[in-house]
Amino acid sequence: VTSAPDYAEPVVGWRAWLVVCEGDELRLHSVARDTVWEPGRRLEADCLRGRALLARWRGEEPHPAPHPACSCGIYALRRPDEAPDALDPHADLGRRVVQRVFGQVRLWGAVVESDRGWRARYAYPSRLLVPSHDLDGRPAPAGDVIGGLRVYRVPVELLDGGREHALRRALLRRREGRPPLVAAG
Amino acid sequence: MDLGEPRRIYTVEPIEDPVPRERPAQPDKAPAEPPPLPERAPAE
Question: What pTM value is reported for the model?
Fold first, then answer.
């Protein structure tokens, strides 16, 4: 017997991605795991915990992600200004990282809701924000990154901000639908 | 990243596909114009 779904609209949350080179193309990449987000394809979560030898020895069974008692699933946050918390500015997961970007993501399938956000089974980005500067305040190749990320077929916008506090402010403004601040002069 | 304590679990089954798909290619050329009507012979 299949139970009816609870909702018919995806959950929309905020998150961060690395932008990495895959050959001549740019791809979104998860910040904490070696996972590439392919354009035009939903990302599906799986749980590695139950597969590990030690977990099996403990009697933990593999389970579909996300599971409420596990930490598996695709993550998204309620507040855009918390998205930079997910980033280690110097972690590259062994990849050639071009830029770190933020944005909104649609989540569906099984969804575990928590205080600060969600973990879900399926995800795809719905809007991408490319900072004009990196987290150290240096100018970033935002124009090239914006062009390269259009392959995801979602809006890709410039985010005027680099250092952490400016970035958090800029992300909050985007949530509220205000136009980006333009520096005078 | 710590999301806090789980509150609840539910299922979402979107009516519309959340993944933007490639649109079917548009024909490059405009549809061919209908052939001209045969000229009518002047009435006699």
Answer: 0.82
